[in-house]
Amino acid sequence: MFWSALRLALSAIRRNIARSMLTVLGVVIGVAAVITMVNVGAGATQAVSDQIASLGSNLLMVRPGQRLGPGGGGGTRAPPFRAADVEAVSRLPGLSAVSGFETTGVVAVFGAENWSTSAVGANRPYFAARKLELASGRIFNEAEEEAGRAVCVLGQTVRKELYRERNPVGTRLRVRQFSCEVIGLLKAKGQAAMGQDQDDVILLPLRTVQRRLTGSQDIGSIAIAVADEASGDRVKSQLAELLRERRRIGRNEDDDFNVLDTRQIAEAATGTTKVMTALLAAVAAVSLVVGGIGIMNVMLVSVTERTREIGVRLAIGALEGDVLLQFLIEAVTLSVIGGLLGLVVAVIATAILAQVMHVPLIFDPLTNLMAFSISATVGVIFGYFPARRAARLDPIDALRHE
User: Fold this and answer.
1) pLDDT of residue 135
2) Which of 47, 119, 142, 272 is buried most deeply by CB count within 10 Å?
3) DSSP H helical ranges for 54-141
């Protein structure tokens, strides 16, 4: 019975192939829009997570000054950190790497090339905290840090602008007024979540920057990597307590420093992206409803056109259930065809958008199967009323229908 009804449904669709294809267009658009939005949204979420993770997982960045935003002063008049502050922080439990660092703008010169970039003075734990990996060469050693030697490690953007395709390790470049030996080259990290180029940097020992570039013992920020087994919230609480004590902040006074937690930023950013993806998918799902209404409309027209055919079937012994099943299968077949075509369109659209938007190509089978199943459900829901109307026709009246 089912296969017989399916053959009749396919035969009816073939008789009006153009009308059938126009009917399923709404379902095609709906399924393609939902799947594409979900897949591209998942790719965007993954891209945001990767960019934030490139800063360093479980990374805390401590800076002088109140936090930005409501309730925060946003000022920068708070005193900077000192080496003793970094040393005290490094003794806290649950930390895997701690380094103070100072950043200043410089112009680097090699041969006839020059490039404006950022010089970051830091100690060796900074590489571990920021998960910086070497493409070639080495990082500065303890003796070079203590002596404030003029050695540096370059990011890939600086190499590209000054050296083109050459390996800079072993050469010397001029940073402001002093000559610096290039001892290492970092692997590319790409853009950070806020759009900064993480490869546009020259890393030098902290003492070198303080002596030769800033001329002070100030430390602008502290990079802290929390150990995997440690509780981030507990570490932040201990860190705040320690810094308030060292900076002599009263009980009723606000912190004059702020702690940037990349883990919390990642959770907030990915959470926002997921909400936006769900919202866009919900809006796209409206197209499925429109497509379902189109199927119901065409099925009602089909029932009217085939009233005599229905009358003949009922007159020769077909049951109401047989007629109901025939038209219901026809409606579901239309929506399933629309779902399959929408799936194909979604694959193509997802691949194109992922390429254009520079996000990972993610094609979740479960999501796609769910969207396809919804398209079949749309056929059942919107096809039931026309099918029920056909099944309840009076055979005599149906045979008299012109």
Assistant:
1) 93
2) 119
3) 83-90, 125-129
The neighbouring-strand residues paired with 118 are: 105, 201
Q: Cα(109)–Cα(2) distance, rounded to whole angstroms?
A: 79
Task: State the pLDDT confidence band at 193, using cuts at 50, 70 and 90.
Answer: low
Burial of 49 (0-12, 13-18, 19+ CB in 10 A): middle
Residue 219 near residue 102, CB atoms below 8 Å = yes
Strands 201-205 and 151-154: antiparallel
Token readout for 157 is 């953007």
Q: Name the CA radius of gyration of the chain, rounded.
A: 33
pLDDT, one tens digit per residue, over 233-269 is: 888 899 999 999 998 888 888 888 988 888 777 777 7
* Residues contacting 312, CB < 8 A, separation 6+: 399
End-to-end CA distance of the chain: 29
Closest CA to 284 of 39, 62, 85: 39
For residue 346, what are the contacts with CB-CB under 8 A and spacing of at least 6?
A: 31, 32, 34, 35, 36, 39, 368, 371
Can you tell me whether residue 194 is helix, strand or coil?
coil
Q: Following DSSP, what letter does each residue of 317-379 receive, concatenated?
A: T--HHHHHHHHHHHHHHHHHHHHHHHHHHHHHHHHHHHHHHT------HHHHHHHHHHHHHHH
Q: Which two tokens stand for residue 296?
A: 């119901």
User: Higher confidence at residue 106 or residue 366?
Assistant: 106
